[in-house]
């Protein structure tokens, strides 16, 4: 069964999408676009609190993600629930993403940037690689995973991919009016934001997004590497 969505955001962990694309998501949903989140891992290792059990943390982070999505106007959140730090580039994981792309048929797919010249969480790199491969060619080609056709999931061609967090952005979005919504969504991830080791993170975040808007005719921006899919 297919469902329609304008945008699919494929995020490695709960809270990553809020850092990377939430201002843009809030803008899209205000414009009436349907946005779906796909959260690949359960985030069960993302803490320094030794009193919290992994299974408890996973439940907490899932609820935090649902609340953040509600704040942003995200229509649906799909939890794949792979273990944190456990993603691998496998046919099975790729097929999960292909199935969802064919199911929701988004025009735009957003995920983390694979090509970052810094320390970069491995789950981010794997999510990016698998998502890019799922977009092209596997979601497009009829003979890729032909059994999905039996599920009623016909091939789908995504029009564009936006990659957040990279070193070579070529596309910016104005988030001046939605920055407060982005920070409100981040506050929903209390188990993560309470562990930030410095005060004033909202001001630092504003300064970062102001820097990304330099040269534009608006105050705050999110930046991406945009890939238009022509074939």
Structure in words:
α1 crosses α6, α2 packs antiparallel against α6 and α3 crosses α4. The protein starts with 6 loop residues before the first strand and ends with a strand. The chain is built from eight helices and seven strands, in the order βαβαβαβααββαααβ. It has a seven-stranded mixed β-sheet, sandwiched between helices. 41% of the residues lie in helices and 18% in strands. It has a single domain, classed as 3-Layer(aba) Sandwich (Rossmann fold), CATH 3.40.50. The protein is globular and about 50 Å long. It is α/β, with parallel strands linked by helices.
Quick structural summary:
By secondary structure, the chain is α/β, with parallel strands linked by helices. The protein has helices at residues 16-30, 54-72, 91-104, 122-138, 147-150, 179-187, 190-193, 201-212, and strands at 7-11, 35-41, 76-82, 108-112, 160-164, 171-174, 221-228.
Strand percent estimate = 15-25%
CATH class membership: Alpha Beta
Percent helix among the residues?
40-55%
Residue stretches low in confidence (pLDDT < 50, at least 5 long) are none
SS-derived structural category: alpha/beta
Mind summarizing the main beta sheet? 7 strands, mixed
Name the shape in a single word.
globular
Summed up, the domain count is 1
Spatial strand sequence of the major β-sheet: 3-2-1-4-5-7-6
CATH superfamily: LmbE-like
The value of Rg in angstroms is: 17 Å
Question: Could you say what the CATH architecture is?
Answer: 3-Layer(aba) Sandwich
The oligomerization state is single chain
SSE pattern, N- to C-terminal: EHEHEHEHHEEHHHE
Mean pLDDT: 93
The end-to-end distance, rounded to whole angstroms, is 25 Å
- The DSSP helix count reads 8
DSSP E strands, number: 7
Stated plainly, the CATH topology is called Rossmann fold
